[in-house]
Structures are given as C-alpha cells and as structure tokens.
Records
---
Amino acid sequence: MTGRINLYGLDRNAMEALFVEQGLQPFRGRQMMKWIYHQGEDNFARMTDLPRTTRQWLEDNACLEVPDVVAHNESRDGTVKWVLDAGEDNYVETVLIPEKGRNTLCVSSQIGCMLDCSFCSTGKQGFSANLPASAIVGQLVLANRFLSQRGENVTNVVLMGMGEPLLNYDAVLPATNVMLDDLAFGISKRRVTISTAGVVPGINRMVESTDVALAVSLHAPDDDLRNELVPINRKYPISELMEACQRYVRHLGDRRKLVIEYTLIHGVNDSLEQAKQLAKLLRPLRCKINLIPFNPFPGSGYERPDPAVVYRFQTCLMNNGYTTMLRTTRGEDIDAACGQLVGRVQDRTRRQERYARKLGREIPTVQLAAES
Ligand code: SAH
C-alpha cells in the first residue's frame, strides 16, 4: 500500500529505530521481529504485548506485504519457480532448489539487470528498477510458507536470481541482515551468498558492512575476453577485481573461501589453455570454483560445451589444487536455470522501448526466451 512502511524491509537496527521514533524503547523493535518471523504473525491487532496505541499506529502507518505470486511452476526435478508481481507491469522470479538435506533459494535483487553480460538472458531484457528490501525478504517469506507444508524451510540463500545485488546494495544489505538475524531467519552467514559480476565498489562496501559469503562471476581469465562477456569489466578490470576479492577474503578470515563462478561456453572460454590461465590467475586467492555449463536461450548465439570438454576443464583446475564444483542444471523444463530468468511480461516490447529510451540506445532486438 502506498505510503505505508513495509516492515519486511527493516533489519533489526531499522526496526528498533522505528519504535524509538514513536517514543518507545528499542526492545519493542525486537519484539516485533519475533512476532513477524518466529510467530509468523502479520496482523498487528494480534500482537497483544504491544501497547494498544502502538498497534493502532502500526495499523495506520505500517504493513507486512509480500509480492503477489503471478505463477508457480514445479519442475520434474523438484525445482520450484515463482513469478512475482513487482508492480508497474514488472515481474521477477525466485527459484527454490530442493536437494538432499537443504533447500536453496535463488533470490532476485533487481527487476532486470543493467550489466548486459553477453550470455545472460536477464541482461537482454534490460533494467527496470531496483527491488526494495521488503520484496527481497518477501521472496524468502513466500518460499518458507510453501516449505512449511513439508515441515521444512529455506536453509541457503543465493542472490543469483535476476539483477546485480551490488548495484542495489542499500536494499540487499538490510535484506541479508534479516536473513542472518536470530530474531528473524537465523541463517548462517556461510549459507547466504551475494553473487556479483564484479562491482568493485560494492565489494569494498561489503568489507565494511557484512560477512556473508561472496561469489564472483569471472567467466574469463583475461581482460580481452572478459570485456566481451562481462562488459562491466571495462570499468573494473580483472586486476582491480582480484584486489577487491583479496580484501574480502582477508576480511572473512577463519579460512572461509570465496566462490569463483565460471560459465563454460563452447569455443569461447572452455579451452585447456584457458583453464591453465584461470588456475594461474586465481593462485593467490583463497577460493573454490563453481563451473556452470552454459544454459542456452533462443538467440544467445552461444552453445554449451561437450561434457568431455567440461570434464577436461574441471580436471585441470582440480589438478591445480582447486576445489571445483560442477553445477548441475536444475529446472530447465520451467526455464529456471542460471541465466534463464526473465521477468516475462505481456508488454515487454513497450517496456524495452522505455528502457532503451532511458539509456538513449537502440531497442534491444535479441530474441527473448519463448513465451510459455
Ligand atoms: N549479477 C550477479 C547475479 C546473477 S547471475 C552475477 O553476475 O553474479 C547468477 C550466475 O548465473 C552468474 O554467475 C551468471 O554469470 C550465471 N549465468 C548467467 N547466464 C547464464 C547462462 N545462460 N548459463 C549459465 N550461467 C549463466
């Protein structure tokens, strides 16, 4: 509702400050967090240990709203994708990946993305807006409501859905604070991962403000290729990115590792030579490597490498001493795999025009994923 403050967007500090502004003690903020996240209460009238006048003030000025679910798709492999209404004809996607003993939620941080990585279909739809913190937390609330029917909850969160989290850090920071807070979701800092295409100032801000896990989408061992695949590399080249990664790893301490993500694209970045170059580049960094075979989408112009090529790349990294995971593709039948998330909207063309005008550049002509 317009004008009302959505309490899902407030971390503990902000929640305490809200109550202090109303002339109350900070502990009222903590009480509120417990009502919301431990009791799952979203009706202020039922929060009976708050003063009556405060409850009234909340009813008039606050809300607890999560985005509306427009579509809910379940994949044959158990992956669940929700399409959420982000307002003003905008839609974002959230993906739940259930695995043995854990439930990972892949959360979106922006509506679209402005980084335009050449192999990512989210990038092809352009950027519409930042999500507020409440809509980032709201994705977790929705997934937990779904999982509670099975007596389960979200155990891991990765900010690897739509958008670049470090270009919306003012919302991502409070949202991740809520994920970590014992008064809210209480997820371990090792199980909340911010993934970035390499926004160096954002990584520097993380050093000052959080200690969640960090994944960096590298995708190329040299600047020439990375400029092409991940255009933000022109602004923050590999050497600067590696320095920022070093700072973050030092900040994490206690032997925690950074995650390097590398999408393998046939004939582009998947040669043995490039694997060796990557091993050399990453030598000074305490990291593990996540390989993601490219997930095709119509009009991408790229292909997934043969399994033998993927195996050769992985083996080279492992022989160089890196823990190297191969990310198996999940939810392909519902377009929920990495880089396949697009906010499908009816008037996408119009929205692209608006976006193109905003950027002052040509309307993207790339073929987007087929409508379902
Ligand atoms: N902007 C952030 C988070 C979103 S992307 C980032 O760049 O890290 C999450 C991961 O999926 C990134 O590593 C991204 O490079 C990868 N990805 C994007 N498109 C892909 C595709 N088509 N196939 C495989 N991985 C892809």
Note: Residues 98 and 225 are 34 Å apart (CA to CA).
---
Amino acid sequence: MRESYLQYLRLDSNDSMVLFSCEIGTPPSLLYWGPVLGEAVSGEQIARLSLRQGMHGVADVALPMSLAMEAGLGHPMVQGLAAHRAGKDWGSLFRVGKVEAMPHGAKIVCRDEQTRLGLEYSIDLDPETGVLRIASTLTNYGATTLDLNELATACLELPQSMTDVVGFTGRWTQEFGRERIARTSGSYVRENRSGRTSHFSYPALLLATADTNESAGEVYGLHLAWSGNHRLRVDTLTDGRLVASLGALLFPGEIRLALGESYTSPEIVGAYSAHGFSALSQKFHQHVRTKLLRPEMRSKPRPVHYNTWEAVYFDHDTDRLKDLATKAAALGVERFVLDDGWFGARRNDLAGLGDWFVSDDVYPEGLGPLVDHVTGLGMEMGIWFEPEMVNPDSELYRAHPDWVLGAEGVDQIPFRTQYVLDISRPEVADYLFERIDAVLRDHDIRYIKWDMNRDLSHPGGVDGAVRAVAQVHALYALLDRVRSAHPQVEIESCSSGGARADMGVLAHSDRVWTSDSNDALDRQNIQRGASFFLPPEILGCHVGPAHCHVTGRRISMAMRAVTALTGHMGLELNLLTEREPDLVQLKSAIALHKAHRRLLHEGDIYRLDTAPHHLCSGVVARDKSEALFSFSYMWGDQHVLPGRLQFAGLNAERDYHLTLIWPEAWQAVKAPSLIEKLDLGGGGAVFSGAALMQAGMQLPHAQPETCLLFHLKAV
Ligand code: DGJ
C-alpha cells in the first residue's frame, strides 16, 4: 500500500500496478490497472484525469462506477449485486467505512446503513507474480432475512482499448477451446448452471486489444477460482465504458442471510500483461505454482503415470493388471493408477457407484496383491473414486435414497445412470470420508483420481432448498479432510476429463485431468488452451492407444508420445497389445520426459503464433539457460516449406547449442533438410539467442502429424 491517506489504494508489482478509489463515504472502484506508473503519480492525478460529464438523454451527472455496481448507483445497464428483503431493501449503495492494510493489499470495508448491509473487499496484488486477487463478503446486519440473487465478486472497469474478448469453451473431449470476438455494445455473458466448472464455459476471460497476440500487446486475464455455477460478463456501456464482472451464479433462494450471516464470493484471480498472452500465462502459472500447489508436491518430480482406464475399462482382472504394471514399470512408469471398476457391483457404468468397498467378485483376495505388486515394482499406487455420485443400482442408494440432490416433483435427468449425493449433509460427507479413509489406510496408496461425471441438474436438498454453492464448499472441505488425514496422498481433479480444472479446486488438489481425449492431435490444441491459465506440470497428458478410442483416428507413437511428454506425462493404453517398436519408442519418450521434466515443470511458457496448420510452443528456464520448443505439423501445407521458427524468451546475448531431440529417428522427406545440414539430430549447432529469436530457423518440410522437439542449451 503506497498512499498512507487511504483515499486511494495503490498496489505495485514488478511490472503492473492497481489503483482503487476508496475514499471514505464513497463507493469503491477500480481506477487504474496497468503498467507501473512513476512513484510520483498520485491516485488523485488518475482520478482527475478520469473526470466525466453528464449528457443529454442520460443522467445530468456522470454516474460513478463501483466494485459492486449495486442498484443504488442507478446505473441503467450493469448490476453486480441484486438482493432484497421480501421485495424491499433492494437499492443498496455501499460507501467505504474503512480500509485495513493486509500483506500486499487491503480490506475495503463498506456499509450501507439504509439497507443494513456490509460489503467487504479483500484485495491483494502479489509483488512477484503480479497476480491480483479479489474476494468479496456480503453481511446482513438487518433483523430480517436477506435474499441474495447475485453478487459478482467484483465489477472492474477496464480500458476501452480492450476491444477483444477471448472466451474459453468446449465440450467433453474438446475442452479449453478459445473464441475470440470483437466487443459490441451491450453484454457478453457466459453462464454456467451445470453445478461443476463445466466443459462449455471455463470460468475465465481475456480482454485484449485487437492486435494483441502471443508475444505483444496488452491483455487482462480474469479467472474465477470456483468449481460451480458462474456468470462471466463483459458489458460495454452506453457511455462507452467497459466493465468486466465475474461471480458465482446463484439460484433463486439459494443464499438467504439471517441477521449476522455472510456470503463470501469466490475469488477473482487476475493479471495484466503488456507483452501478449504468453506473458500473461506465465503470471498465472507462477500463481498456481507458488500460491496454490503444496510446496512439498512442488519440490517432488511429478511421477510418470500409467492409468488403466483405456486399457481395461471395467474388465478388471488382477493377473492382467499385474502384467500391465510389470510392463509399465519396465517402460519407466512411476505411478500406477487403478481407474473405475474396482468396487461394489461396478462392472459397468450402470451400478455400484457409492459402494466404496473392494469388490470380492473381482478381487477375491482384495486389492492387497495388486498394490504389493505395484509397489514391489518401485511404483506408487493410485486409485479412482467418484465420491459425489451414486448409482440408483447400489447398496448406498437403496439404504439412503434421500441422500441425493433433486427437485421436488421433477424426475431426475438421466446422466450416466447416476445421481448426485448432497455432500453438504454431514452424514453423507462422513460416510464418504470414512470409506476413502479406510481404503487409504488399508493400502499403500499415494494418489486419488477424484472424478465427477454429471451435472447437478436439479441441485435441491432434502429440505427443498438449492444446495449448489453448498455442494462446492462441501467438496472443498471433503478434499481438505482427506488431504489432512493423508497428506502424502496426491489428489487429481477429474470431471469427465477437464470439466473441473479451475483454480478453486486447485487449492485443494494437486493436478487435473485435462481431457478424456487422448487423441494427440486434439490434445495439442486442448493442452494449449489449458496452458493459458494452468502450468504444464498439473495437466495430466497421457499417451493413448494407436487407434484413438474417442476419435477413431490412428496416430503414430512419435506424435502421441511427444504430445504427452510436455505436460504431466502418463500412459493410458493397453501395453499388452501395442506394437513392440512403439513400446520401444515410448520408453525413449519417457526417458526424455524425465531428463527434461524439471525444465518443463518449472520453466516459463512461450506459445508462438503460427499458421493454423501448425502449433508451436516452448518452455524456457527462468534463468534462460535452457529451453525446449515443440513445433507440430497438424495438417498439410500449401507451401513447400513452413516458415521460420523464431524462438522466444531466450537471452539475446547468449549462445545456445541447438539440437533436435524428437522424433528419435527423424528422417527428412527429402534429405538433406536444414536438420541434416546442421546436424541438429546429431552433434547440433551453436547460434546466438538474438539470431534464433530475430532471424529464426528455417523449418524442414515434414509430414502432417509430426512434432519436432528442439532443445536449446546455453553455452
Ligand atoms: C471419466 C474420466 O474422465 C475418465 O478418465 C475415467 O476415469 C472415467 N470417468 C471412469 O468412469
């Protein structure tokens, strides 16, 4: 906090700063967010430069903005807070009462005496990462119940020069798609009522200038750290101003506050970059790494996974699983994850969910022999749960049909033959904890794949009230309870692939399952989309079978392996049926991943802009001593040769030794290409960082579905 008289709250990071207006007795608002202005620039200067006039046809005075955009402001378009008491007390106007300093931030405490409500903003800007975090808490000080219909965590006025909105969308097996559109007047709104983070509306937005790309231009990134219903808005007001607001989306009657009760919104995690999208992602990655991930997990290399799902599905057999484990260990796998199908009557997806007891039918001697086999091979054991769900055909549902969420008088919507348990009920959470705890206590298990495979279509509890927000909090509490009882166990957040991969759940888990598509071509794009917010080490990236189950495509091992090795690498294919030469290649890819895992998992990301039929990105060590860049040929090119690869993020002053490290057996379509001429596949060649970045390297012609991996080491 730079200004001592708290009329303005100024927070600085290395390369960005924020300035809030928080004068006592006025509504708080965001005045400025962008590059660091000189020390001498006062909040007052910015405020004076922001003075606006009234106009004919609109109010005679310029209406102020506020962080809540509450009804009392009288704004004709945007409202970030909607609440009432039996139809009254809807017109709050919050005024700052005091500002309390916090590490790297402050709490702005506001109050509206008329409607007897309090609204507090907790704001901080991390000096190192430049990440801005805002949360808000609404408190009812009135004697009667307050119905809260909406509370955007914050409404942020951003520069009108941000003409483009980038939204993140998709579906099952096509997560993290980007949609870039030019702002128009009115509203850009994304709403999610699925009860989970969702495939179709990732809770994040970018606002950028029209010419912002990966390496240049201004961009604001806003992420809502929340694994439930959300509303993301970008409003272009009739007076030209731009307001972005993000918050949990509330169902009618869901949040009712009695005297003294509070509702806290999920946190907005934001960042500003003056140097394009990649620099923005680097900030988010550093945030996830330093603020969300547990330090002990950060310092441990991420073990290479083997996951049984696509190899065996529900067809569990201890001997076959042991054979798979043996084969996996021989390839260099370090963790074996037993997926769905080990418990109750779960022989297909029609029955058994909720009965978290090892199946006697499939495992007559229990899981012990398999776990011993896996650990005996030097691997860690992991296991799948889907705690929030129950099949109607299960012992649990027969005993407790009232434990599920629903809506009175409305049939359950069919969705993978399962219902959602109301885990906000203590007895339900206790049952689930007891079961998970027992399985973890009985076996040497170090990893949980925590799945969640349906929407909360009708999120009503047994009392008829909506439990969607409560369900998310209960999930976080259950994850924490498991974590504190078993701190050595890592938890993966999975939801039909990547439908629960937000920064909210990442505060309670250790990695995410990025997508159920193991199709390397789709994965290249999905992982690129996820990388806008999430660092590679938490993105589960698995090598799938040659014949992709989801798309039916056949993709070479060279392409599949390199696609997985740049994230948190794993395998998800039947090692007993894959071709031997492919397994030999896979083993090399795993060794390569391990050799570079530290760089991949700690470096800075640089996505490069390319023609649509190519994809290129790299990871550069933070001290710029080393880098890895992948260049993918997705489909055929009209030109004889692709353009040049202009590496990014290197030290222009240093020389780098450049080699091609994948594919192992690179063969030019027509030799010699530059690769042979410079012997990049052999001894390599040395170039200056400046030349590699500014002149760039001519790429060879390659067949579609090829990915070249280049290694650069400073000499
Ligand atoms: C959905 C997950 O995304 C898959 O990886 C797998 O675990 C299945 N569920 C199991 O039912």
Note: The first helix runs from residue 43 to 49.
